[in-house]
Amino acid sequence: MCGIVGAVAERNVVEILLEGLKRLEYRGYDSAGVALLDKDGNLHRIRKVGKVNNLATAVENETALGTTGIAHTRWATHGGVTEYNAHPHFSSSRVAVVHNGIIENYVALRKQLSEQGYNFTSDTDTETIAHVVHNMLDEGLSLLQAVQKAVNHFTGAYGTVVIDKEDPEKMVVARSGSPLVIGLGLGENFIASDQLALLPVTRRFIFLEEGDVAEVTRREVTIFDESGKQVEREIVESTVEHDAGDKAGYRHYMLKEIHEQPAVIRNTLKDRIEHIHSTDALFGEGAESILKQVKHVQIIACGTSYHAGMTARYWLEEYANVSCSVEIASEFRYRKSAVHENSLLVTISQSGETADTLAALRLAKELGYMSALTICNVPGSSLVRESDLAFMTLAGAEIGVASTKAFTTQLTAFLMLTLAIGKFNGLQESTEQKIISAIKTLPGKIEEALNTADVIEELAEEFADKNHSLFLGRGAQYPIAMEGALKLKEISYIHAEAYASGELKHGPLALIDDEMPVIVVAPNDELLEKLKSNVEEVRARGGIMYVFADVDAHFESDDTMRVINIPHCEDIIAPIVYTVPLQLLSYYVALIKGTDVDQPRNLAKSVTVE
């Protein structure tokens, strides 16, 4: 959510800031703005509702110049989508601030500051940061000292960058709960909420830790921890690639990323599946000694990643012979829970910065979990740095807000984890080899599933006037049905729900009529006959079904049922394979609905606030 870019240099930084914002558009936003300090200490601000291109046009028209600047894309939380609520926010035309996160005690601060004579021009919580810092500057403090003192007044989460027209050659940044990274240049330095924003200007980064405050000038970066002690943080050479400007001939990033899945799963498996017993190499130093003690796995995640965890529970309990619990991070962190003996906490996040998941990890450490492992797509992210172990998926940058390739690589990672834990819990070698053989076929099976695109594009026309839908699955396909429903609602805005098929007669059957599409996931597994009974329950009540079925499952299309044949695959990889046609369905329905596929309304890619 939201994007921050800052720069201090000898040259004009406007284009650097705008390019950085464009590279962060995938995160989701509704307005954008920039504040610039020129060499004479003049402070300029331009803000626009809508896309970064609107801001870029306005900047070009005003021929803005500045050697120090901050920029922001806002995803509205406090206050509507208006120009006056867009960042940066000012205090007395001296201090400019951009901010990701939520200042929870802003109402009390706003009242106090108003009594001191400060005038508020926005409805946001962020403006309180600018006024508090300004108040500290009025006490005679330096900008660094002012920010260090100001942050003690804030409750909540913030990644913030502050500039002062009286001290024009520096930025001061502070991080608490919302990620910030410093980019190191030659005679110039940068700040951003995501390293992807800065790849055109640097590959050298410092990831700020929780509670850090840093002073950034053209030539120096000085970092202080939450106690105020000066500290050194590791400089990381990034190998991350970002192709946000290249859809590779596809109409949308989402479609490109759907079609990238065979390749990214091959990348995730490469040099790993053949060395599945090299546990420390796969998951981190000390992994083998940890995994051999695991008797319970607690999975914590949000959204699509939560569905990956729900699917993994079936694998871990059946093949790794350990009990498994799966919980939404925002629920886990706000309730009292019992910690199982020898319990491994597993967090899942594409970005590694998901606020609730990160908070759950920190809580779990206090609760006494044996160890923590994260499955993540971003090296250097907070979850990776703060976990004991990590399995890095190699999905590459995922630009579409609706997750596709990140999800299937997470599932692939869970198969690897299942094998790694299973070897210490009686997984027979013959079963292990069968699973490995199935995993090796996975990229090819997904390529076959992608061949259903033309058929799915055609049947998507039948959803043009629909407003509701049901998704059904059994066993490990139930979470896949949930993921299919989530994708459809995310990008087409059709209300969609998923149910375990056996639950139909416990309520959902009341919804069935010829206006309610029912999407069924039907691999040829041990639950197929039970699923066929559920299909007949829908048919008997006039429902219209779209059945994604194994070619050997013997479903036939008729007036009440459209059958989309899916290539046969082994049961253990079927959840991953069946995900792909559901992604395609949501994509083509969204096209028909005319929605913004890559940046659906009200949603953000990286959810870094509660």
UniProtKB/TrEMBL annotation:
- Describe its assembly: Homodimer.
Give a yes or no for keyword Magnesium in this entry. Answer: no
EC no.? 2.6.1.16
Ranges of residues in domain SIS: 286-427, 459-600
Identify one Gene Ontology CC term for this UniProt entry.
Answer: cytosol
InterPro entries hit by this protein:
GATase_2_dom, GFAT, GFAT_N, GlmS/AgaS_SIS, GlmS/FrlB_SIS, Ntn_hydrolases_N, SIS_dom, SIS_dom_sf
Q: Which organism is it from?
A: Alteromonas hispanica
Give the gene name: glmS
Q: Mind listing the GO biological process terms from this record?
A: amino sugar biosynthetic process; carbohydrate metabolic process; fructose 6-phosphate metabolic process; protein N-linked glycosylation; UDP-N-acetylglucosamine metabolic process
Residues of the active site are: 2 (nucleophile), 605 (for fru-6p isomerization activity)
**Which chemical reaction does it catalyze?**
D-fructose 6-phosphate + L-glutamine = D-glucosamine 6-phosphate + L-glutamate
Its localization reads: Cytoplasm
Name the UniProt key words of this record, in alphabetical order: Aminotransferase, Cytoplasm, Glutamine amidotransferase, Repeat, Transferase
Q: Name one GO molecular function term.
A: glutamine-fructose-6-phosphate transaminase (isomerizing) activity
Q: What class of enzyme is it?
A: transferase
What is the recorded function of this protein according to its Swiss-Prot or TrEMBL entry?
A: Catalyzes the first step in hexosamine metabolism, converting fructose-6P into glucosamine-6P using glutamine as a nitrogen source.
Name the UniProt record assigns to this protein? Glutamine--fructose-6-phosphate aminotransferase [isomerizing]
Which parts of the sequence belong to the Glutamine amidotransferase type-2 domain?
2-219
